[in-house]
Task: inverse folding
């Protein structure tokens, strides 16, 4: 084999490895690529701002962005206006944002007077931290965002404030 | 004639081995523990192997180096902080009466939509003065248990729900 061919072959193999590693790190649907099948979302029911019990199954068939947050959490409060923007943008595309507040109704109501929210806010109080854990939040911190696909499968989880561009990319890939 | 270079087949096998190693050695969780839904572990979190629970992130050391005082020293990683106004303190013994806490080393931060907030971080301390009930039987003057309630965050990343920590305080004799 000539040295030119060897260099070419080495370059090709290097490129293949780079693509493999890149896909593992950045592919939003990488769970499947790594052999990890998506898991069905845990069922739950929580009261909304009016005190009406809302079951997560109510939104089955939609692409759901489930956001665990609290009024006492700065990063949570900062990202909610971005979610409001995205809910407006994706309203006609079967995307549903849902907020689960690790908080009481009074605190959330006060927050809403300053920051109007255009998607359902469910009141979970501190007990809903356990629900967040059921959804994979092993650290127990907020904000924590989960994307559930149209087949009720959890496709992504994210601890901490999420970049709007990142979230849009994830949504577009699942629509 | 033997080539001085590694054969293409060997090179391919080596690269495949390295690639597989990278695929399966990626961090799986904050503390090496398998989360409840390991299959959901996000690739967005895959680079955040430093994620800590509140218990892991915040350590409080209690000491009583002076009569009538308890000193709490905060230990936390860089970038983690506790809100000054979200601390709460109670002692389990009625023989002791806590005074107003004195916070030292606080820093003011801009906290999202809540405005400015005073916070404490690694190395900062809290002085808790206390008095002993004059008529308390001596058998009640054992080392009391101090319950500290606090709430903190990793700056610009995430926040923890309020946490309670119980500390046995080695109170000096009066």
Result:
């Amino acid at each position: 084999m000539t040295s030119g061919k060897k260099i070419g072959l080495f370059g090709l193999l290097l490129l293949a490895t780079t693509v493999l590693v890149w896909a593992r790190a950045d592919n939003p649907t990488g769970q499947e690529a790594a052999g990890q099948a998506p898991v069905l979302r845990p069922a739950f029911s929580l009261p909304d701002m009016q005190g009406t019990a809302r079951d997560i199954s109510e939104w089955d068939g939609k692409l759901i962005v489930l956001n665990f947050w609290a009024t006492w959490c700065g990063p949570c409060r900062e990202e909610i206006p971005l979610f409001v923007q995205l809910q407006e943008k994706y309203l006609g595309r079967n995307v549903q944002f849902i907020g689960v507040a690790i908080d009481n109704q009074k605190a959330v109501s006060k927050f809403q007077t300053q920051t109007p929210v255009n998607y359902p806010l469910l009141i979970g109080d501190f007990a809903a931290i356990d629900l967040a854990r059921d959804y994979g939040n092993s650290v127990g911190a907020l904000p924590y965002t989960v994307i559930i696909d149209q087949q009720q499968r959890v496709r992504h989880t994210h601890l901490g404030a999420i970049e709007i561009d990142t979230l849009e990319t994830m949504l577009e890939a699942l629509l | 004639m033997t080539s001085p270079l590694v054969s293409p087949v060997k090179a391919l096998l080596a690269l495949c081995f390295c690639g597989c190693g990278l695929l399966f050695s990626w961090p799986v969780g904050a503390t090496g523990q398998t989360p409840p839904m390991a299959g959901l572990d996000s690739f967005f979190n895959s680079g955040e192997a430093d994620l800590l629970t509140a218990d892991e992130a915040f350590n409080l050391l209690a000491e009583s180096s002076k009569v009538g005082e308890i000193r709490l020293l905060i230990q936390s990683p860089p970038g983690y902080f506790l809100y000054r106004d979200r601390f709460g303190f109670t002692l389990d013994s009625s023989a002791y009466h806590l005074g107003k806490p004195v916070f030292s080393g606080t820093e003011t931060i801009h906290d999202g939509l809540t405005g400015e907030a005073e916070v404490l971080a690694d190395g900062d301390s809290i002085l808790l003065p206390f008095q002993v009930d004059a008529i308390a039987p001596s058998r009640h003057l054992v080392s009391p248990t101090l319950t500290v309630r606090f709430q903190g965050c990793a700056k610009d990343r995430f926040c923890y729900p309020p946490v309670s920590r119980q500390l046995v305080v080695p109170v000096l004799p009066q």
